[in-house]
């Protein structure tokens, strides 16, 4: 099967992962995932593999195969895996879990290569664009920076006591980081390089984005520049698009009937895919804030989505 240039996948509480044709909305492949719910999906930069974060394992699937079996399983977490992502060359993967740890996995070798203790359930992990720092947010409200070169925690902050950090996102150039919490608030910091390699957080803005939970926050990708946006997906059934210049509300995406759990920008920042408890995923065009495609097929809450429509490139 020729690989589509746009890879779009969703996962649901119905224990399936579905691959979709983005333009037609047709589901062309369904993977059964009976062991647990899938909490997060991510696609390798070369579009070859899909990682599914479950409980307590991560499974890696071959995107170009029609088989149901994972090609690899990563098994040292002991509770729900809530975050998964890849280094820019696709050589290693990172994860975070409700077992309180952040882990690094070399995709070319079995087992976990490194582990960092957060001491509370980890809800979100992002990789800094410098590829040498991971930033995690946990259930107790802690944000920690893990310096992969020094192999230690280089920075720790608590934006709001006893309020879980639900989602983190970093601007593609490393200039900003945003943390979203269970009270509908986004905290924004400028990231400043200190005299050492350590990143310093300078408070920039506090945004009361939603009245309900924010389940996902996401900054727009590089090709979207010079426009810069922040998307916030919420339990109030909406997704809001904020202009990072002043954090003014640009658009509200209305159409989902239940909680919106996840969202991902297209590579050019012109479109957004969302996943909701109403069982659907939607493709929105941000210029008009309209849903131009609804992906119907899951039977229960659709809780995560992954998209790679970036430029094709060859990778070993």
UniProtKB/TrEMBL annotation:
WD repeats lie at residues 1-30, 74-108, 115-148, 207-252, 253-294. It comes from the Eukaryota. Pfam families: WD40. Its main location: other. GO terms for cellular component: endosome; TORC1 complex; TORC2 complex. One of its GO terms (biological process) is TOR signaling. Keywords: Endosome, Repeat, WD repeat. It is found in: Endosome. Belongs to the WD repeat LST8 family. Component of TORC1 complex, which is an essential cell growth regulator that controls plant development. Acts by activating transcription, protein synthesis and ribosome biogenesis, and inhibiting mRNA degradation and autophagy. The target of rapamycin complex 1 (TORC1) is composed of at least RAPTOR, LST8 and TOR. This is Target of rapamycin complex subunit LST8. The gene is lst8_2.
């Amino acid at each position: 099967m020729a690989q589509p240039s746009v890879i779009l996948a969703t996962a649901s509480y119905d224990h399936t992962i579905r691959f979709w044709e983005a333009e037609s909305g047709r589901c062309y492949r369904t993977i059964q995932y009976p062991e647990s719910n899938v909490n997060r999906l991510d696609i390798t930069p070369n579009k070859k593999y899909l990682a599914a974060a479950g409980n307590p394992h991560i499974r890696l699937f071959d995107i170009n195969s029609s088989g149901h079996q994972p090609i690899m399983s990563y098994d040292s977490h002991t509770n729900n895996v809530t975050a998964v992502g890849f280094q820019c060359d696709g050589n290693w993967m990172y994860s975070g879990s409700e077992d309180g740890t952040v882990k690094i996995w070399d995709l070319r070798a079995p087992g976990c290569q490194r582990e960092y203790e957060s001491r509370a359930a980890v809800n979100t992990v992002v990789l800094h664009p410098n590829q040498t720092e991971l930033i995690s947010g946990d259930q107790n409200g802690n944000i920690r920076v893990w310096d992969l070169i020094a192999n230690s925690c280089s920075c720790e902050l608590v934006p709001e006591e006893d309020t879980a950090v639900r989602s983190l996102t970093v601007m593609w150039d490393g200039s900003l980081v945003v943390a979203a919490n269970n009270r509908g608030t986004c905290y924004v910091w400028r990231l400043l390089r200190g005299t050492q390699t350590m990143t310093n957080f300078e408070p920039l803005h506090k945004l009361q984005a939603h009245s309900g939970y924010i389940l996902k926050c996401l900054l727009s990708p590089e090709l979207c520049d010079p426009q810069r946006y922040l998307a916030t997906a919420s339990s109030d059934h909406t997704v809001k698009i904020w202009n990072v210049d002043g954090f003014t509300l640009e658009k509200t995406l209305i159409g989902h009937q239940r909680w919106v759990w996840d969202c991902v920008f297209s590579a050019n920042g012109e479109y957004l895919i969302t996943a909701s408890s109403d069982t659907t995923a939607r493709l929105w065009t941000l210029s008009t804030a309209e849903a131009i495609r609804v992906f119907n097929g899951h039977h229960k809450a659709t809780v995560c989505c992954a998209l790679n429509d970036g430029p094709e490139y060859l990778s070993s």
